[in-house]
Every structure is written in C-alpha cells, then in structure tokens.
UniProtKB/TrEMBL annotation, chains A, B:
Positions of the DNA-binding region: 31-50
InterPro entries membership: BetI_C, Homeodomain-like_sf, HTH_TetR, Tet_transcr_reg_TetR-rel_C_sf
Domain annotation HTH tetR-type: ranges: 8-68
Lineage: Bacteria, Bacillati, Actinomycetota, Actinomycetes, Mycobacteriales
Record's keyword terms, sorted: DNA-binding, Repressor, Transcription, Transcription regulation
Protein's name according to its UniProt entry: TetR family transcriptional regulator C-terminal domain-containing protein
Top-rank taxon: Bacteria
Any Pfam family hit: TetR_C_6
Length: 194, 194
C-alpha cells in the first residue's frame, strides 16, 4: 500500500477507535492512551498521526460528517420526492448501531467544544451543513409542488432542522420513542407543508 | 444554621461549582479535585458530601431539573393561554446565561450517561418530565379551544418536545439562530395547531 493511503487509513482507524471509546465510556474517558489501546497501537504511534488530542477529536468529528454526506448522496436517485426527503433525513437519525454511534460521538464532541476551538469550528460547520440539507430537502419538495407558496422556507428550514435534531437526541437518549413513530412524525410534518 | 440545612446548602454549592467547571472546561475536565477547588473546599470535604463522582453528577443534574420546574410553576398565573404556553417553554431554552449553563451542563451530563447509570436514570426522568410539560402545555391550549380537535395530542407532544429540544441545542451550539426568531418559531408553531 502506498505510504499516503496507509497514513489516511491509519487516521480513519484511530478515529473509529475514538468513536468506540467515547460511545462506550464517555468523552471524559477518551484519553490518548485509551484510544491508542483501543486502536491496538502505542500512544507514541498515535501522536505521530495526531500531534494533539484536539486534532484527533476534530478529525473524528469531521469523519462522521463525511460519512453522513456520502450516505445522503446515495439517495439523490430516488424518484418519489417525499420518499427521497424522508430517506435523506433518516441518515441523520440514530436508526441503527452505526448511526447511533455517530450521533452519540457527535453530541459528546459538540458538547465538549466550549473547551476546544477546533471542535467548535467543526460543530458549527456541521450545524450549518444540516441546515442546508434541510433547506435543500424543502426546496426539492417545493420544486415538486409539495410546499405551499405561503410558507417561509427559511423559517421552515429552521423548524425542520430543530425537529430532526430534537428527534435524533430523543432516539439516542430518551429510550421511549420508537423509530417507526419518529419516521412517521417526520413524514407527517413534511406532508403538512403542502 | 441548623446542620441539615447547612448540609443541603453545601450540596447545592458543590453542584453549582460542578456546573461552572463543566460549562467552562467540558465534562472531561470535571474531576472531583477540580470541582472541589472551584467550590473552595478540599477534595476530602467534597467526598464527605458526595461519596462518589456519580452521586455528585446525578445530584447536579437533578438540581437543574428542580430549578427549571420551580421557574415553570411561576407562570401558572399568566392569564393568556398562548402567552402562558410560550413562557413555560421559554424556561427550557437557553435564553440567558443562567439557562445556558443549565442546558450545557445537562447536555454534557446526559451525553456521559452511557458510562453512568445514575445519570442515565436522571436523564430519562428529565426527558419524560419535559414530554409531560409539552403535553400539559398542549392540553391547556386545547382546553381553551386553541388546538384543532383533529390533532393527535400524543404525536403533537412528541413534535413539540423534539422541536423545543432541537431549538435549545441550536441556540446553545449553533451560534446563528437569534433568540427572537426561536421564540417566534415556537409561537407560530403553537398558533398553527388551531
């Protein structure tokens, strides 16, 4: 394997190890030493790849957003506008183990951002990215005549974004909202915009 | 001061010191030693009041919920049903420094709950408490003829709860939604239920 690819792969493996540690033990437990052990390398090797813990945390966050964006793109070919909207929004909900770990780690890291400027920057970018995603979903529905002309798309994007993020946090932490009900609620909300 | 009151007051002072540490440095930095230093006592004195860190974290969370509940009760006397609803919901939004610290600490602790069963329990109780609050707000509006009979109050409670929590997280972390717009959005949503 060429050295550059090897290095990129190593960064991803370490970020995934961080996800597992944060997901299992909380962000307070995610020391460089613990993450290195989880990744099966020495703390020295980890520091060779990520010079600071902040760099590791920021990369781990950004990797989550890249993966979500890649999954979202796979739905562009869906024909039915409402199904396309629903499928895109489902990618940012913790509906399986994979998305649950992403969500949990993201929430933990965003919450730590007060103490880490690089995390704060990545968190704001993700926030703005998700707002744009919601705006794009609504614009797509509007293009297909599925949003009443009287609706303010800015306010509706803000509403949809908050709704989706709130439902995501509830699925993750609330333990009492079933995924089918959550998806139903989003579909009903989108349908109500007509 | 009687000894019991003194003890209760001490617990509150330590919990508030934990809030400041978490709010400023993140939950990862909130060691018993740091919280004790912030409270101006020794780590040994802190351990005399809270035998474990988990006990301290859980009490600190519960204290947030008690304060929110006390503020919510003050709005019961408001005459106008929509204004009453809005005032109650504003109590769980980070609209000033006080509520911002509560929200931030709560989110940080809830996010750490995977590793701390006592926090998970307190987090679930808070989640259910806020769902009940939303249901109560909607039932109050419905009693005043402000919710269409065709609306499913269960689904609407879930929607309002997610909306409010999502907006709260965005106000806290998003840096781009103005409080006036957030309040307007909630009022518009409540008004749309008619």
């Amino acid at each position: 394997m060429p050295k550059l690819i090897d290095h990129a792969q190593r960064r991803i493996e370490i970020a995934e190890a961080l996800w597992r540690v944060v997901s299992r033990d909380g962000v307070a437990a995610a020391s460089v030493r613990d993450v290195a052990a989880e990744a099966g390398i020495s703390a020295g090797s980890l520091r060779h790849v990520f010079a600071t813990k902040e760099e590791l945390l920021a990369f781990s966050m950004e990797l989550i957003y890249e993966r979500v964006a890649a999954r979202v793109r796979t739905h562009a070919t869906k024909r039915d506008p409402l199904r396309r909207a629903e499928a895109v929004l489902a990618e940012v909900l913790p509906l399986d183990d994979n998305r649950r770990i992403e969500m949990h780690v993201n929430l933990a890291l965003v919450t730590e951002a007060a103490a880490h400027p690089a995390l704060a920057r990545a968190g704001v970018q993700a926030h703005e990215g998700l707002r744009e995603l919601c705006r794009g979903v609504l614009a797509d529905l509007a293009d297909h005549g599925l949003v009443a002309a009287s609706r303010d798309l800015d306010a509706e994007s803000m509403h949809l974004h908050a709704l989706v993020d709130g439902l995501a946090v509830h699925l993750l932490l609330g333990h009492n909202d079933r995924p089918t009900r959550v998806r139903r609620l989003i579909v009903d909300h989108l349908a109500s915009l007509r």
